[in-house]
Structures
1.
Amino acid sequence: MSEEGKRAEKEIVDTMRRVYERGLTTSLGGNISMRLGSVMLITPSSLDKASLGDEDIAKVDIESGKNLTPCLKLSIESEMHRLIYLKRPTCKAVIHAHPVFSSLFSASEEEIRTDIIAESYYQLGRVVKTPYAIMGSRELAEKVSDDAFSCCAVLLERHGALTVSDKSLLEALERLECLENAARMSLLSRDMKLNCLSENEKYELDLLRKK
C-alpha cells in the first residue's frame, strides 16, 4: 500500500470512530468509503466501528466490484458506494450512517429544512429522499447512486442517511453533521416563527457553493 493509501486508511478509521462516538451510527452500523484511483477503500462488515484498525479497511476494484482483500467481509452496502463512484466520477468520499433525527425524517412525510441557517443550506442544498428498498439490495444501490449523482445529502427511506463529497472525507463528515443538526432544528422549530433564508439569499449561497 502506498503512503497515500495508508493515510486514507487511517483517515477512514479515525472518521468512523468520530461518527460512532458522536452517536451518528451504532457499533456495527454504517459504512465509510474513499476513492483512491481505481480502488474504493471501505469499512468492512461485522466489525466494531469504534475499534477498527488500518488493517481492517477493505479494498474493492471500482470498475469490476472485485474484493481485493478477500480476508475481509465487505459491507452489505459496498455496492451502493461503488455505484456512486461509477456514476459520479468526481466523488471522493461517501458516508452512510443512521443518525437519530435524520433517520426519523427518513420515515416521515415532512422534509428536513436546510434553509433555517446559512451553513446547513450551503453545505447541503436540497436533501433528496430515496424510496425504500431493502438494505444491501441491488435495487437500493441503484436508487441511491442515481440520487447521489446530483446532490450531496440523501435520506434512505426508513433506513438512514448518506452524504458525499467531491473534495474530501472531512467535507462528507461535515455534511452528515449539518444534516443531523438541520433535522434537529426542523423538529425543535415547529412552533417558532422563523425568518428563514430568502430565495435570493439561497441563490447567493448556491453560487458560493459552486466556486
Note: The first strand starts at residue 31 and ends at 36.
2.
Amino acid sequence: MKQYILLDWDGNLAQTLHIWLDACRIGLQNQGVTKSDEEIAASFGQFSHFMKEWGVPDIQKAIDDADIAARKLLPDVELYPDVLLVLETLKKQGKKLALITTSPLINLEQQLIKHALHDMFDAVITAEDTPVHKPNPEPLELGLKKIGGNKAEAVMIGDSDKDLGAAQNAGIDSILFYPAEHKKFYKLEDLHQHNPTHVVTSFKDIIELVNS
C-alpha cells in the first residue's frame, strides 16, 4: 500500500502533450531546425539539452517562441478521463499527494484554478523549485520531504521516461500511465527500459494499485 503519491502534470494529469509538441516544433522551425514528433517528444523536460545537441542557433529564442505558442492554448487544456475522480478518492483515503512537474509555475497556476485542484495537492514542485529536473531524483525527493513521506510508501505516477527515470534514480516505485493516444509520443518498449512497477492505460486503475 502506498501513502505518498507523486504525480506528473503534463501528459499525465493534463492532456498537454499535443500542445507542447506543436509549440516546440514552432520554436525549432523558427530556428530553421526540423525534428520528428518522436524526437521532439523525447526532448520534453530537457528541451534545452536536446537543442544543444541539435545545433539550434538561438536556444533561448526557441524556448521563448515555444512558450508563447503553448500559452495561447494551455488555458483550454482538459484533464484525462477519471483524473479528478482518482485524486478525490486518494485524498478521501488519507493519501498525501505531491505534484512534481518540470513546467514553470506560470504555466500551471491557471490550470489548477480552472480544475479546482489547488487544495488537492499537499505540495507542488515546479521548475523553479530545484536546479535540476527529472530524471534527476531531486524534485521527487523534495516533494516527498514536503509531504513528510518515505520512499518505501511512495509511488511516482507519470507518462514519460523522465518520470520513470526519476523514480528509478530515487529508489521509488512507479506507475506508467500509457493510454492509447500516447503511442504517438512514446514507444512502450523504450519506457519499459526504466522498469515501471506497473503500467496502466486507464487512470482509474491507479486506485487499486496504490492500495494493494
Note: Strands lie at 4-7, 96-100, 123-125, 154-158, 173-177, 198-200.
3.
Amino acid sequence: MKYIKILLCLLLLTTACQKTPKFTFMVGGSANALLYWERVTKEFETKKGIKIELIRLPADTEQRRQRIVIPLQAKASDPDVFLMDVIWVGMIAGARWLEPLNHYINRDNFDINKFFKRVIEDVDTFKHKIIALPVYVDGGLLYYRKDLLTKYGYHEPPSTWETLVNMAKQIQKKERIQNKAFWGFVWQGAMYEGLICTFLEFCASGNGGISFDPLGKIKVNTMENQKALKFMVKLIHQEGISPPNTFTELKEEEVRLIFQQGNALFERNWPYAWKLHQQSSLGGKVGITQLPHLEGGKTASTLGGWHIGISKFSDVKEIAWEFVKFVTSFEQQKKFVLELGWNPGRSDIYQDPEIREKMPHLIVLKNVFENAVARPVSPYYSQISQIIQRHINAALALKETSNEALKKAQVEIDQLFVYYGN
C-alpha cells in the first residue's frame, strides 16, 4: 500500500505538470531591454497561467542570429517564439523555419490592418503568406541643429540633398572659425550593415534602389545607383562636408557622438539617438525630419526594426500564437513606447493622444515608416550585403570608381545566384 500511494502521488504530479503548458521565448538586447522582457513574460504568465522560459541572448546582433539559427537548423522544438532583425526574416523564411500565421490571423479576426501596410508586405510576407509581425520599427532620420540654422538665417531643414550640401558648406566654414572639428554632415560609411542602409537611402531618394529584376535576381548596378554612389563619394572628397574617416570608422555611435558633442550640423541616424540628444547639452537645440532626396526624387528611409515569429518546429504553436498576439497588442505596444522609447509596429498607436502629447516626435516618425524602404527579402541576403558593402566602401575610399564598384558587385551577386541555382 505504501508503494501504491507513492506511485499515485507521482502520477498526480506528472498529470499536474502536463496540465501546466510551457513554452520558450528567445530574445536578446541591452540589459534594460531584457529586464523589460522579463516583465512582459511575467505579465503574460499571470494573465494566461502559462509558464514561459525566457532564453536570453547577447546584445550583439550577429551572435543573436547564430544562437537562433542553430536550434532551427536542428529542427528543435525550442525556441517556440523568437525576435528577428528585419534582415533575418527573409533568410529564416526561405529556410522554411517559420510558421505561417494566416490561419491564426483569419480564425481570430486579428486585424492586420493596424500595422504598417508596407512593413507587412515588404518584410513579413513570404510567398504570399504572413510569417512574422513587427514588434518595433526603425527608419533613417535627419537630425539637425535648430539653433545653428536659425543663427545663419535658415528657417527650415533641407528637403533635397543638394540644398543640404549648400547649407552645410556655408555653416561649416563659419563655425570652423571657432571650432576646427566642426563638420557639415555625418553619416554611417564604415564597412558594415549600416553602410547598406545609408546607400539604399541615397539610391531610393534618386529613384534607384536594390531591387529584384523580372527573373528574381538582385539588381544593384543601375544609372540611378551610380549617381547616388558618386554623390556619397563627393560628400567626403569634393565637398568636404563629411569627415575623411567616414568610410573607416563611422557607425551609429561614432556619428551620434560627433553630433552630440557639438561638432556637426546634420546627422543621419536612427530614432534611438533622439532621446540621447535631448538628454545631452544639446537638449532643445536638435530637430528631426525626414531624410532629403536628390533633385527629381523623393524622400526615402531604410526600414529597420525587430519582428516576432513562431518556429515551424514548435510543439505548442497555439500557445505561441497567444504570446505573439499579446506582444503585438495595442496595450503592450503602447507600453514599449512609454517605457523603452521603441517605435511601435502598429500604426494606430501613433494616433493615441497620450503618445502624441508625451512623444510629439513620433508624428514625424509615422511618415518616415509609411515610406520606408526595405532591404531585399532573400535567403541569401547576408552574402548579398557583404558583397555590396565591400565595393561601396572601396568607392568611398577611392580604391574603385563608383561605376567599377557597382559593376563588380553586380557580377559577384549574379555569380552567387548561379551558385545557388537561381
Note: The two ends are 69 Å apart (CA to CA).
4.
Amino acid sequence: DMGAATVVDLSRHPNIIGIKDSGGRVAKIGQIVQRTGADFFVLTGAGATFFPALTMGASGGILALANLAPAACIEIFRRHAAGGWEAARKLQARLIPLNTLISSKLGPPGIKAALDILGYYGGPVRPPLLPPSDGDRAALRAVLAEAGLRSKAQSYTPGGEGE
C-alpha cells in the first residue's frame, strides 16, 4: 500500500498514467485525485466503496464485484455521472453485503460459487483453496437475492422506486 504522497510523486512519471487502489479508503482516493492532474486516472478496486470513490473524483473501478454484478456496477457509474446520486447510493448500499461476503470471507472461491449459482461457469477452485461450505453457499444465495441478482436466464433490473 503506497501512501498518497508517493502516488502523487509517481503520477509525474511520463510512463505512469494511473493507479488502481484497492484499500477502500475514500479519503486517500480524494487526496490523490486532488493532487494529481486530470490526465492521471484513479481507479478503485474496492467494490464496497465504488460510489463514494466516484464522488471523490475516481475515474472508475476495477472491481471483483463486477464479476457478479456487472450491470449494477455500470448502473452506479452511469447514475453517478448523470447526477443521480441518491439512486447510485441506494444501489451501492444494496451491493455492500455481497461485496463484504466475497472480499472479507470467501474470496475467489466465493466468486466462482456465486457465478455457478447465477448460472454461469465459475468452476472448481485451484488447490490449496477450498470450495465454500454449504453454509457459505446458502449465505451467497441470500446476499445475491438481496442484491437483486438473478440467474443469467433473468436479466438484472435496477430495482425499486427512485433507483
Note: The radius of gyration is 17 Å.
